[in-house]
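On to our target:
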Amino acid sequence: MYYSSSPVYLIILLAMVAGWLIQWRLRSKFTQYSQIGLQSGLSGKQIAELMLADHGITDVRVISTEGRLTDHYNPADKTVNLSEEVYAERSAAAAAVAAHECGHAVQHATAYSALQFRSAMVPALSAVSKFMPLVLLAGVVMVRTTLVPLGVGIVLFALTTLFSFVTLPVEFDASKRALAWIDKRGIVTPQEHAMAKDALWWAAMTYVVAAISSLATLLYYVSIFMGSRDRR
């Protein structure tokens, strides 16, 4: 039996186009919402510190990091890293991002299972990512003589695909926590809340497309493996 990879090629192409469009839309939304000042007048830094305090988290620092849309929570050193714009801005976009990253800190503090699972995968993925591309390349080159390298590469790549899907509930949950808190705390008006929700939705879509793209790529390698095996 021959396994055609044509549908997989199409999925990969569509994922690439969708990823580009979503990244463009995300940047457009953040630029738009960054220009609208919060009525509360709070900066991203102040919002982050307030959310942490409200959740009784005292061992997490809020710091500024270089770049645009480089915001992230680092569970290793317990820091909420806000890009320079988000750190200082007093806008709906800054409120959304700052609260979202603190949402991850809350997940960490409350031992959110999906975050724990994702964090446990990081050391293995860090090691795998160093040699996985070479293993896959060797597997494709040697596919006519042996399927072992490609099989190993597929298993390793499957770990990265699993990681991308585990990331989805982590990101969606962080946004849910963020939106609920900024609304309950009165950080934003109803109009500002709608903008924050929209911005976080587009940000979440980048993770969705990344997961689909990773799955499509995995299926591509699997199709090569299965097709080569059946032709033997």
